[in-house]
Amino acid sequence: MYLNRFVNGEGKYVDDIKFDNMLYMSIVRSPYAHAKIKKVKGGLNSSELKAYYAGMDHAMREPVLAIDEVSYVGQCVAAVFSENRYESEDLLNSVEVDYEPLDAVSSIDDALKKPAIHDGMKDNILDTEDVGNKFNEKDIDYDIKVSDTLFMDRISANPIETRGIIADYKDNVLHIYASSQSIHRLKGGIMKTLNLKDDEIVVHHVDTGGAFGLKALIFPEYIIAAYASMKYKKPVKWIETRSEHLQAAHAGRGIKADITLYARKDGKINGLDGTVYLDTGAYFTDDDLVDLGNAMHEVTGPYFIENAHLTGKYVLTNKALNGYYRGAGKPEASRIMERMIDLLADKLKMDIADIRIKNATEKPFKSPLGFDINYPTKPLLEAALKHFDYYNLSKKEKLGISLFILDEDTAPGESCRITVKDGKVKVYFGGDVSGQGHELFVQEMLSEEFNIDKDLISLDYDDTDTLKDGTGTWGSRSAITHGSVLMKTAEIIKNDVIKKFGKYDKDLLLDNEFNEYYYYKIDYNANSVNFNMVSCDVNDMNSIKIYTYYDLGKILNLKNVLGSIHGGGLQALGETLSETLRYDEDGQLITNNIADAGLLTADKIPQYNIKIVENNSEFPDKAKGIGESTMIGIPSALARSIELQTGKRVTKFPIDDLSLFNKCME
Amino acid sequence: MMVNINVNGREYKKDIEPRMLLVSFLRDELNLTGTHIGCDTSNCGACTVLMDGKSVKSCTVLAAQANNHEITTIESSDPKLDVIKQSFVEENGLQCGFCTPGMIMQTFYILENSEDADEEYIKKNLRGNLCRCTGYKSIIDSVKKAEEKVKGEINVSK
Ligand code: FES
Ligand code: FES
Fold this sequence. Notes:
The complex is a heterodimer.
Chain A: H1 2-7, E1 23-29, E2 35-41, E3 44-45, E4 52-53, E5 62-63, E6 69-70, E7 76-82, H2 85-90, E8 96-101, H3 108-113, E9 125-132, E10 144-155, E11 164-170, E12 173-178, H4 183-194, E13 201-205, H5 220-232, E14 236-239, H6 242-248, E15 252-263, E16 269-281, H7 287-297, E17 307-316, H8 330-348, H9 352-359, E18 365-366, E19 372-373, H10 378-387, H11 390-396, E20 399-408, E21 413-421, E22 424-429, H12 438-450, E23 457-459, H13 478-501, H14 506-510, E24 514-521, E25 526-537, E26 540-551, H15 558-577, E27 607-613, H16 629-646, E28 652-653, H17 662-665
Parallel strand pairs in A: 1-14, 10-28, 12-13, 16-17, 22-23, 26-27
Antiparallel strand pairs in A: 1-7, 2-6, 2-8, 3-7, 4-5, 9-17, 10-15, 11-12, 11-14, 15-16, 18-19, 20-25, 21-22, 21-24, 25-26
Chain B: E1 2-7, E2 10-15, H1 22-29, E3 48-51, E4 54-57, E5 70-72, H2 79-90, H3 100-113, H4 119-125, H5 137-157
Parallel strand pairs in B: 1-5
Antiparallel strand pairs in B: 1-2, 3-4, 3-5
One FE2/S2 (inorganic) cluster sits between chains B (94-100, 131-134) and A (160, 210, 435).
């Protein structure tokens, strides 16, 4: 059983794998946020490996090893290799690099003012995008207009296991072992960058020590390791240090928004417009499109707002690239809306719940920003307020609330293989589980479906040969996608038994051999409605109380659900109060270690009041998503609870106020 | 240099570089990969082991300093450690499992060194161990459960 494996120290993470003659790779990184490279001598550098990576084509992709110029602290300049881990670090000193420092841009605001960081560009706007229906304020019915600027600073994913890879080129095939949320996506990225054919690379899934969106991505270091293994014909291992992680791992959030709401005096919002900026970092990555795309399309969230238009700007800065962090644009979108609706309520002297009831939708609809709301949101809001006795409680406690849609990234579906052999049932998912404990629900569902003991069922590592396709774990999808494809594949196996023996029973299953694969296609993103409420006393960190009213459809495994809420809950507090990456004006990272990055410790945990409702979804396993809900719902509600006490409106995340929760910020 | 380090009751004599960290000694020399590395600044506790019964961050101790000392790691088969491991399983005190060996070794230390570890005490003593997945709640529950079981056993044997 997977839990036993981990408590016994028998997990197999990438750094636990050793091959004969393996080389350790270390990376020479830029100490400057922006500089010309006058000379680089030694190591593997771009005079030999000149390649650009990203899943998509774009003029501003990052070179895997810097070419003539570095554009952020931590950018890869050269790589060195040794059979001894310590010696490979020593070799970093053998590479000579001459830099000529240049002016750097370290924030969105800075970038909008300063000259372009890349030659050939007129400013630092990498791309611009418009969504929604552009409206003239004269044409809409409103009495009051409220505007504000919201800012959510960058956050590093910081899984406790950093990034890492082993590339092992043998018999003309490149074998990759990586800590990944999607080996298929990783395979595609490496193939594209190094021009490999489909049968020249196999990616193997290993245990993943936390991922949080980051490990869905591809990175220059992975390409360098792959190239080096092909060059030296030896296995090459790269394990990131935490310091490298803080500098160079693609960072999440980094969103600024200038927003205006147009409303009637009864609180009904009839228009929303503004501009949303993404701190893209120094180069383009595919992640940008998802992050800013979600952050724009989902802004109107659960509310029926008929006129909305946003302009999105991808802004270049001299910082590491943008990446996914739990929620990837969804928490930002919701926080923009929820902070604005609180502001409107204050201006109109309305209760924050009343104004939400006024605007919540009574029917499914497609928002002008292109977000399909599949369920009415008002019934859940009213039920949640009633359940927690909001109107009475708000007289006693400083309550913030948040109503939101969880957009579940269910498309394009997921693949699964189930094998039965020697009395054991093994499950493989093409979308790689990345340390969220999926084995628990796999065992629970299959033991029921097959009527067998949980211990006979395991979730096994796959590779890109076992399953030729697959998607991944992200976007609150796997309860639906993985759960549903598991049910479908299990049905096929049961039918195999019936076809062969005329009936199903567990001995007929276990005494024989079966092997079935299925891809469950879903051609749209599902979604669900959820609610959070938070109260706190700003003088006491342990006073924070998180109320969740989540519609999870059918619960597949309660431990998984609670793990997601408690884990995400603390991340959400960290994101609200303390977590970020700090840079000085020259683009130097001043967050030096994982403690500085603001991760919360065991003494900071909040109290929970968890209510789960189970309105079945339309999918075979009847589940709805959960993974990102806490990140979406909690921060804005906590911010509200805090501002009610300090009298200072919260527009910036993390709030990062040393006078709050004295214990928290010590 | 030659060192002689007792790990989980077994003596290991090895010729090592003086700068080698204890965590590298365990992972690379002895292949005991249950002890993990999560940072390079002594902040995360993923590398926690016991040295002569005291919890240490093995990324901050040189293997040379462990010469002639006794090290206990997650791979140890100490019965009390087994009780703790089982409690982590029962309370689902982990998700990705990466922080888990460090958490369990720190728990072992807490339970060996305090008669009556209440929730406050447990939280305070887990502050040096970071977990990004669980939000610590199930970890604290696991420690409490382990404590109950350990106490129960002591009472029974009395
Ligand atoms: S590895 Fe982080 S404290 Fe030792
Ligand atoms: S279980 Fe993943 S870091 Fe703790």
